[in-house]
Amino acid sequence: MNRTSATVTLNIPSVDVAVALLRRMREIRQFEERIIKIYPTDVMVTPVHLHIGQEAVPVGVCAHLADTDKIFFGHRTHGPALAKGLSMKVLMAELYGRTTGCAQGYGGSMHLVEPSKGMMGSSSIVGGSIALGVGAALASKLRGDSTIAVSYFGDGATNSGVFWESLNFAALRQLPVLFVCEDNGLSNVMPKSAHMFADVERIAAEFMRVLHADGTDVLSVYGVVEEALVHVRAQHGPAFVNCPTKRWMKHQGVDVDDLAINPVDRDADCPIRRLERLMLQSGLITQEESRAMVAAIDAEIDAAVEFAIASPFPDPANLVREV
Amino acid sequence: MPWSRIPQSQSKVDGNRIISFKDAIREATDQAMTLDPNVFAIGLDADDKFGVFGTMLDMSHPDRIIGTPISENAMTGVALGAALCGMRPIFIQLRVDFMMLTMDQIVNYIAKWRYMTQGRVKVPLVIRAVIGRGWGSGAQHSGTLQGVFSHIPGLKVVMPSTPFNVKGLFLASLQDDYPVIFIEHRWLYKNTGHVPEAMYSLPLGKGAIVRPGRGLTVVAASIACVDVANVCEQYGYDAEIIDPQTLKPLDEPLILDSVRKTGRLLVVDYDYPACGFASEVCTLVAEKAWSSLRGPVSRLTFPECPMPASGVLEKAFYPTARIAQRIEELLGAQ
Fold first, then answer.
1. What pTM, to 2 d.p., does this model score?
2. Is residue B157 helix, strand or coil?
3. Which listed residue, of A39, A222, B21, B49, carries a Cα 20 to 30 Å from B166's Cα?
4. Exposed, middle or buried, A20 (CB in 10 Å: 0-12/13-18/19+)?
5. What's the ipTM?
6. What distance lies between CA A211 and its chain's CA centroid?
């Protein structure tokens, strides 16, 4: 596939949107890169599943969501959580296990929550949270309100029964839910050819409208999700967006993935470089502005780390609480 | 908040109004759906013409009764997702055996969600679990398993036994912001009793003394409590019968106070013995009322095998016929 010719001609939505997309992707990237630096010092005692390389998908999706729209995601949380509006401070504090974290240190990296941003919790058991998004959409429909829900998952989750059960029910009830598959082609170290026999897009099309986006190109994701959400918000039923992308890091932890089955071209496959290059070429941003953006985000992450370190640990006297 | 209008408890008697256990659930469900538009019912055959053993017949809000495909795991997740977004779902499971397909959602999600988020989201979700022997239903359609659910932190486990308490406990469960496993023995549905028409709730975590006595404390929930009461009535045993009503949280003071008075404990639990409810109550008493005990604690439970189909074996599987003998053995030891 000639990716360049397919995407360069895409409309850039507007300067503001392009800048916002670039900034959000960089926030995720730089946040994750900071974790890589900090992690070996053992101050974050929580398993992390980094989002590096896959930033285009959560950012392209969440750019279209209001705070009242719900999103349910799985174990790889940092990308969609930051994209949906979780503050870096409370995320960092959660990773540090402090009371100022979004779950007061009881959740950890895989269990993030921020109700004011439409994040009602996340799950590290692959598959199950797909159904929660469908339930959120059912709540919207029963109430007759205008919110929608997103079930956000990876290609590994399509192996699970709960995925197909959820597609079926969402289609039967014509619920306002968008299924987003952040398809990095890997289930831990297993390639898709070994974990999924059939073409998920083709089978899902039996249930609902299915669209395909380039998950390494944020403008592709942004455009395709916009189209899908027009369908969902118009109460025409659920939709499915598949976003093939590239995982740069190991399934878990802070090491680079060296799997032969997963070759990564850090230039062509990088959603941030692709958008930045396009914006520089078309004069939407200058080199100086771009560098300033990186520096501003780094300063924000510095502040998040300081905030986390200065925050108290939970009191063991409160071990049994909210249960 | 419409729920604050429901009084916590009320006199059992409302004139001569006598209705069945199943009609009490039906009435409570219907009243709750009328009171609060966030209440809805969902489950396999929740909307079928038999109406879930008659508990869902002729409802006033059929638009909020949702039948589902045979997809227990995802459908439980759907109910949870709706609960997290402010709805109050009633998830109906026609057999507790089917709930084994949903244990991922129940144990990993529903039970843990409020703790994992430290209460930033509430989980107002009731799962109605129908339990109990049928007529030769056999091993896979006759389970009880209240012990399994009681083992999991984060779940409340409620077991009504009468038309009066099923209505009050169900409404209390529906207004609770923690998930509740509401366990109904199917042989209770036809039982009748006084049930006030107005809405009322009975507090979760509070048991009831069904019959006062001095020689022995018998703790029994759900239909086991009814069976024990019938036996004691028939033979006039001097036994104090305690209906815990909720297995979790358990009304420990009620049980301990009774044992301190009687000095003896029998737990009749229609479930498996190992690591079960009966074992839990015996442990409680051994730990906290040891010096009051005049003899060993005693359990009457299912045997360690699945439920068989043949009527002769099914009857032997339930310890009901052995209640009188066990009580006499314990009373005779005084």
1. 0.95
2. strand
3. B49
4. middle
5. 0.95
6. 17
For the segment A78-121, what is each residue's pLDDT rounded down to a tens digit? Answer: 999 999 999 999 999 999 999 999 999 999 999 999 999 999 99
CA distance B174 to B207: 18
Largest Cα–Cα separation, chain A: 60
CA-to-CA distance for A240 and B113, rounded, in angstroms? 26
Tell me if B56 sits within 8 A of B42, measured CB to CB.
no
Q: Which amino acid is at B202?
A: L
CB A237 within 8 A of CB A231: yes
Structural contact between residues B198 and B294, judged by C-beta atoms closer than 8 angstroms: no
State whether residue A100 sits within 8 Å of chain B by CB: no
Residue A94's nearest CA partner among A121, A66, A65 is A121
Instruction: Tell me the CATH number of domain A12-307, given options 3.40.220.10, 3.40.50.970, 3.20.20.150, 3.40.50.10490.
Output: 3.40.50.970
Strand partners, A183: A244
Nearest to A187 by CA among A178, A169, A177, A200: A200
Helix runs in chain B, H state only = 21-35, 51-54, 72-84, 103, 111-116, 146-150, 163-175, 222-235, 252-262, 277-288, 311-317, 323-332
A134 touches B: beta carbon within 8 Å: yes
Annotated active-site residue B328? The verdict is no
B168 CA: distance to closest CA in chain A (Å): 23
Tell me chain A's radius of gyration from C-alpha atoms. Answer: 19
DSSP A241: E
The pLDDT tens digits for B168-197 are 999 999 999 999 999 999 999 999 999 999
Q: Which residues of B touch A (CB under 8 A)?
A: 37-38, 40, 64, 66, 68-69, 71, 73-87, 104-105, 108-109, 113-121, 153-154
Same fold, B2-194 and B208-332: yes
pLDDT band at B330 (very low <50, low <70, confident <90, very high): very high
- The CATH class of the B2-194 domain is alpha beta
